[in-house]
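Thanks for the sequence, V.! I ran threonine ammonia-lyase right away. Repeating your input here for the record:
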Amino acid sequence: MAVRAADRPVLPAVPAVTLDDVLRARKVLAGVTRVTALEGSRHLSRLIGGPVHLKCENLQRTGSFKVRGAYTRIAGLSQGERAAGVVAASAGNHAQGVALAAALLGVRATVFMPVSAPLPKVAATRAYGAGVRLQGQVLDEALSAARQYARATGAVFVHPFDHPDVIAGQGTVGLEILEQCPEVRTIVAAMGGGGLVAGIATAVKALRPEVRIVGVQAAGAAAYPPSLAAGHPVAVAEPVTMADGIRVGRPGDVPFGIVRELVDGVRTVSEDALAGALLLCLERAKMVVEPAGAGPVAALLADPDSFEGPLVAVLSGGNVDPLLLQRVLRHGMAAAGRYLSLRLRLTDRPGALAALLEVLSAADANVLDVGHVRTDPRLGLAEAEVELHLETKGPAHCDEVTAALREAGYRAAEWPGESAAPI
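Predicted structure:
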């Protein structure tokens, strides 16, 4: 799905962000953040028919681009504001960015995180020196708690995306892209509240207005398409996606105004597409990215003919929970036709399971897991049921494995479709 940001009603005035703001942010960040690598991708280049490069913000300090905006915002505080400390809310990446920035600047930081925040992100935020408070099930609830804390204590609230200084800091990604790939024609980046895409668009459109900027949202947390259609920020009641980095219920007022004016389109991608893109980044690019960071690659895989190279896809973060990574990789393998789940009925006699495994071995299927059930009301007296999780070489191999099992006389409790598509 694509939505163009054009011909929208006039919005109320919001603080402007300019190229000069981004250039000042780059000076502030000099020696603090990394100029992250731009890596070519032969596979994606062949897919879209033009050069594709990956902007590796997953290799940035704290593992994401967020430290750029957080440091720019905190560095701009007065001495009195710094003395009062800062407070933020985040599912993880902004939390780590604020924690590191505050530590570097000698400012006390408190971060509110949803109770569902990945444990590695919580641990990393504490390790950078911030006090962490777990509150609320979703980010919006943590944001509300952080604002209440700011009012009660006088601490400065550092918003993850809805502030000009934060957007200016994120915009330094755009400056680096133009310097590293002067011939770029398309830039694709994931978006939740919109700070990264707004910052990139501010910098890039001021210097190269012909460059196309495309934002990518998870379909289950896509607040920008209805917001752009309405002409003002619209909240998604219950954003649902495994991509916690972009699971935001409402666009920020400041980034929305920029996206509305400067961004050429917003795409939405499915959870299957995110899982497949994460798997591709790991296998083909040797890059560990979180689901949000894989968003641009998911958009390319979903509709490669609609993108023009040279293209830069921003891998916005790499802070993925290992348990989530395990689930996502298995899901990605299933989406790519490389993972097959079956429940088979067989006669409950000695050697029956070994015979089944011989059939699978002959079909060159890799058995990942086997579950064996003998006692169940659904089974006959002499029957057993086996649940199999298999790694295959793709959809065609799934068909071959299923055909081999059928030919050997096995009955499935539920065959995965006539084409043996993975379940």
